[in-house]
Each structure stands twice: as C-alpha cells, then as structure tokens.
Amino acid sequence: MTPQIRAFDDAAIVAAAAVIATGGIVAIPTETVYGLAADATDAVAVARIYAAKGRPAFNPLIVHVADIAAAMRIASFDDDARALAAAFWPGPLTLVLPVRRDAGIATLVTAGLDTVAVRVPRHRAIQALIAATGKPIAAPSANASGAISPTRASHVATSLGDRVPLIIDDGACPAGVESTIVAGRTVLRPGPITAAQIAALWSDDAPATGPSDGAGGLVADPARPVTAPGQLASHYAPTKPLRLDATTARDGEYLIGFGGIDGDMNLSPRGDLVEAAANLFDALHRADASSSPRIATAPIPGKGIGAAITDRLRRAATR
Ligand code: TXA
Ligand code: MG
Question: What are the pocket residues of ligand 1 if the criterion is a CB atom closer than 6 Å to any ligand atom?
C-alpha cells in the first residue's frame, strides 16, 4: 500500500482534518520541513506519531497553533518570549515555555515535562489544517527515525510509506531546515531565524541570567556550547524507585499494569502498545503522586512503539 498524496486545496484540507478529528495522522508541509501531524490534545493520536516514525525513544514534540493568542492559551509567556513571538511569528521559530496545565496538551507531547515547545507556522497548508481542525497540532518532522527531514511530499512517502495514510503536497518547503528553537535565552537548535537576529532583540538589555556573552545573555556564540534539544529535554522521571517487569505489586508499590497484569492502573488492558504509550506519562505522574513509596511496572513487549516505552521505563528505573 502507498500513502495517498493530495495536492493542497480546500478539499484536501477537509480530508486531512477529518483524519485528524478521528485520531489519525497526516503529513503536511510547513515553511521548514514536512511535519507528521496529530491532534495535540489526543494522547492516542500523538502515540500514533511515534509509532509511525519508529522512534526507539520519546522526544517531546512541537505544538503548532494559529497565532500568538492561541500559543498563550498553551504556554506561559514572559517578556522575552512575547518579544520573540511578536518579532518572528508566524515563522520558523519555536519557543520552549512552561506548559499551562489547563490547555489539555497530552503529556506524551511534552514527554511529561513541565515545558512545551510551541510555534506559529507561516505556511498556508499547516495554517489551513489548524483552522480546519480547531486543534493545536503536534508535529515532528515527517521522516522515519534516523532519516533526514523531508522537504517534499515524495520524501515523506519514501521515508514513511504506508505508515502515513495521507500526505498533503504543497511543493518544496521554502526554508528546508527545521525551526530555530529557543528556551529562555538559549538557542537549543539553530535554524532559519539566526542567533544574531534573536540577540538583536535583546541587545539593549542586561542578560537575564549568567555572565554577559555580548549577545544580551543569549548563548549564540559558536565557541560556546549549544545544547542539543534532545539532551536538554531531560524527560520527566518519577522521584520514586521503580521496579521493572513486575507481575504483582510488592508491599508499598504502586503497580502500573499492562495487558493481563492489572495494577493500580493499567496502561492498556487489551495490551495495545499505542494506547499504552498514550497513557505512560500520566501513569508515571499518578504513581509519583500516590501514597505508595515505590513504583513497579508490568512487563511491556519491546516491539514497535513498545521499544520507546521500555526505554523510558529503563531510564526511570536506573536513576
Ligand atoms: O521546523 C520544525 O520545527 C519542524 C516542523 C514540522 O515544525 N518540526 C520539528 O520537530 O523539527 P522535531 O520533533 O523533529 O524536533 C523537535 C525538537 C526536538 O529536538 C525536541 O527535543 C525539541 O524540539 N523539544 C520539544 N519540546 C521540547 C521541550 N519541552 N524542551 C526542550 N526541547 C524540546
Ligand atoms: Mg526531526
């Protein structure tokens, strides 16, 4: 089976919005690269993104919204963030900001972190999809894990094949590289908006934190370390000891079950790994907040998206 590739027009966006509304995933161009889109408030839909990419670990995703007002409903903005948004949105800039819990963003989007990456894209196709769905759209680059980012519909089809049912084709992405990611005054990922452009906004200010680097506190000098996003996004980890592959709860343990092993909660009673991924970070938060001093987790098969689940749990267990 090959994915359906439809040229961008109103009818294609209606079709794409229908897929998103039923918890599905769609590939859609942005001004940077093609994204693999899902409703950011639907945990199972977001899990389908990870499953389609075949990523062996969860990396937090960027949430795409129509405008600054919509972004402010999802994240808390400080003055620096407001200035960046005013200067560069819509456009290829992503801001990492504290997530607003009342926004209903699935915890799988942020990998359980208390920050969220948000951006207002400029491209007409993803803007049309956001408008048609009325939802914040979670979207990583629409490539299989380990492959290069797609800048044409054909790249997506080659990389993901029938793992994505629908690709909206609106030609080549104008920027062709992923958005610049900024957290506080640090550029986490260089991109189309340059560090110099960003630093210019703050040139009159004292640095927010740390010693002056001549760029208004912005860590933008190539001689200084720029943290790779995946590294900085040290994912949410429970504060309690965690025991893996438990078939029953021992004294004082909150058991996170799976399939036939029921615990204090069950990631997926029917043993569905996509559903389990969708519930994973909520389960860890709940176990952490419970009165039990320890956490145990039932065995999870390490195939498909299960590999990302077991990776996450192994890390949590060895902290
Ligand atoms: O241009 C782009 O940004 C494209 C288009 C589709 O919008 N998207 C994209 O997504 O490049 P992705 O998933 O390939 O890269 C998102 C990056 C990851 O490296 C992730 O670690 C980082 O954003 N990220 C997301 N949420 C974060 C957070 N809360 N804290 C730190 N980094 C975060
Ligand atoms: Mg990527």
Answer: 30, 32-33, 35, 59-62, 92, 94, 96, 110, 113, 115-117, 139-141, 178-179, 181, 183, 188, 229-230, 232-233
